[in-house]
Each structure stands twice: as structure tokens, then as C-alpha cells.
Amino acid sequence: MSESAEMDERFFPQEQRHKVIADACAEMLASARTGDLEGFVKSRAERIRSAATQGLPYRSMILTFLTMQEAMRPLLLRFYGSDPELLTRATGALNRAFSLIKAHEAEMYLAAKEEVIKAQQQAMLQLSTPVIQVWEGILVAPLVGTIDSERAMQITQNLLIMVRDTKASIAIIDISGVPMVDTLVANHLLKTVRAARLLGAKCLIVGISPEIAETLINLGVDLSGVDTFFSLHTGLKQAFRELGQAVGPA
Amino acid sequence: MAVPIVQVGRSLIVTVPEALHDTAAVNLQGDILAAIKKTNASGVLIDVTALDVVDSFMGRLLVDTAAMARLLGARTALVGLQPEVAMTIVDLGLELPGLYTALDLEGGLQLLQHLDTERG
């Protein structure tokens, strides 16, 4: 069996096809009778959403309607076969109706897929900006990868929420996993430090390599207001030292 | 209705309501200073948990109040800033010199107490 035929079989098994189509026809007729198309559209939308999130290909999804269209042809012949003009009009109307349905469903399918992609992007963003509580009052945020303004905002937000939820007084930002630290990144970091300070938490920046140190000073970046260290180890020691003391001013 | 100012030990707690504009804000400033004088408070805690936004007007008000309080001998701490508000303040480049900050009332009271004993 070809892959597409396999998929069709998986989502639309042969022995169930009759029942699915019969049910779909019955639903359509019922709503056509009552004039309540909205209910029909809503139930279709739900089915499409779950199909799209499960990875059902669009083709398999519209297989129902394609098959229905096929199935209705002999019916049309039976009812309007004697009058060619009526038959043409009926066939045209039916085709138009199905085209509309297919177009509408395509939109809903796309929208559902886009939602999935968006959710995945959000999840990725969340995963890539973790903040860990390593001790009472101490957070560590290990940054990995490039920091653009959107990630910087996500990191700051995550950090602030953690500070608030864990009542942390020290946040250690580890930038050893950040490949490029330039003026922009440094400014993002400074903003995060300032924001955390507004919530009463002090930030330490660790993971500054000799190369980064050279770059930053050559670029004229001023990180003098922030405690910075090469190793996380030293930064952590400093954090414990500060917690041992009484609370200091902002 | 005037914003209530509560005394706890040697500190004053001021809970800023969600909408504080113009005259009400200036009145509050005056009320705080009067309260410092009356209670001989050494610390003022301004709780901004209810604020969804801190613009330059509010920022200036807070900074000025802290400076005035300082002249009377009291330190001022800001508590309860929401994460989104903090981020906006930083994005706008709003500076808040002279204001101490803490996460919540408990942290703020501790901070003010520490500053008080430090001063001796």
C-alpha cells in the first residue's frame, strides 16, 4: 500500500467508511432541514481540529466529502434524470456546496495547524529559558544559545515570575552557553538585572570568559554596577555569603 | 477617600490604590510626610501591588516622595511591583533613584528594619 493509502486506511478505515459517510450525510440533511448550519459547522470544526493536531493530512480529511460527492451522483440521476436542465442545475448546486465546504474546512484545518505550531514554538521558548531554584532564595538561570530581544524578554519574564513565586533574593545568570555577547546582549542583561532589582532581587552574572571580558571592555560596555564572575562556583559562594548577611539596600 | 497609612513599628505602610491621579497623588505625598513627622517613622513602605502600570508621572511622584521622606530622616522602599510593570519600567528607561525595593511587605519591613539598625 502506498503511504497515502496507508494513512487513508489509518484515519478512514475501509469498513468504517460507509458508516462515516452515512453519518455525515445524515448530519448534513438534519441541519439542512432545520436550517441550523452552525451546529453542523461547529461539530465539523471540532473534528478537524482534533484531526489536524493528530497529524491527519488534509487529503484524508476531505476524503469523506469527496466520497460523499461521488455517492450523491447516482442519487441525483435517480431524482432529476428525467429532466436534463434540472439535473444540470442540481449537479451545479451540489458541486458548489461541496466546494464551499471544502474551502471552509481547509481554512479551519490550516488554522488548527497554525495553532499547533504556535503552541510548539511557545513550548520551545519556555524550555530554552529555564530558571532553577538551587536553594532557598537563590535562583540560577543558565542561558544557552543566542539571545535576541524576544528571548531576552522571555528570560526576564521567567526570572521575575520565579523571583516573585520563590521569594528569591539572588538570581545567578549563567551566560557561559551564550556564544556571542555584544553590546545588545549586554544591554538585555542589564535590563534583566534592573528589573530583578525592582523586585528586590540581586543578580549575579557568571560564565564570563576571558574572551567575553575583552570584547565587552573593548566595546565600552559598563557592567560595573553588577557583580560578575567567571565561574558559577564562585558566584554561588558569593550568593550564599550574601544570604548569610542581613538584607542589603537596592 | 484618602489613602490609608498604617504604622507598623517604626515603619509606615502605604497601599497605593489602582487609580491614583493628580490631586489624590499629591495629597498622598503630603499625607505621608505628615505621618512621618507625627510618628517619627524611620521607614516608609509603598505597596504598589495594585498598580498595573507605573508611568513617568507615578515614577516621579515616588522618587520625589522618597527624597522628601529622606530629608525628614526616613528611608523609602517600594514593594509589590508586578513582573510586567517592572519590565515596562526598565524598558522605558525609568530610573528610580533613592528608592529601595523589596519583593513584598515582609521583605520590605525586614529591609527597612535592617537599614534602621545599620544607621544605629
Structure in words:
The complex is a heterodimer of chains A (250) and B (120). Chain A has 250 residues and is of the alpha/beta class. In chain A, 69% of the residues lie in helices and 11% in strands. Chain A has helices at 3-11, 14-34, 37-54, 58-80, 84-127, 149-166, 183-198, 210-219, 232-244; strands at residues 132-135, 138-144, 170-177, 202-206, 227-229. Chain B is an alpha/beta fold and 120 residues long. Chain B is 49% helix and 18% strand. Chain B has helices at 22-39, 56-71, 83-92, 105-119, and strands at 5-8, 11-15, 43-47, 75-79, 100-102. In chain B, strands 1-2-3-4-5 form a five-stranded mixed beta sheet, with helices on both faces. In chain B, helix 1 (22-39) runs parallel beside helix 2 (56-71). Chain B is globular, with a radius of gyration of 13 Å. The model of chain B has no long low-confidence stretch (mean pLDDT 92). At the A-B interface, helix 6 and helix 7 of A face helix 3, strand 5 and helix 4 of B.
Average predicted confidence as pLDDT of chain B:
92
What level of helicity do the residues of chain A show? Answer: 55-70%
Taking the alpha carbons of the first and last residues of chain A, their distance comes to 69 Å
Pair of chains with the largest interface and how many residues each contributes: A-B, 23 and 23 residues
Provide the spatial order of strands within the biggest beta sheet of chain B.
Answer: 1-2-3-4-5
Backbone CA Rg of chain B: 13 Å
Strand order of the largest sheet of chain A: 1-2-3-4-5
Task: Report the structural category of chain A.
Answer: alpha/beta
Low-confidence stretches of chain B: none
Tell me the span between the first and last alpha carbons of chain B: 37 Å
Give the helix tally of chain A: 9
Total strands of chain A: the figure is 5
The largest sheet of chain A, given as strand count, sense and whether it forms a barrel, is: 5 strands, mixed
Helix/strand-derived category of chain B reads alpha/beta
Strand content of chain B: 15-25%
Low-confidence stretches of chain A: none
Helix run count of chain B: 4
Question: Mean pLDDT across all residues of chain A, rounded?
Answer: 84
Beta-strand residue percentage of chain A = 5-15%
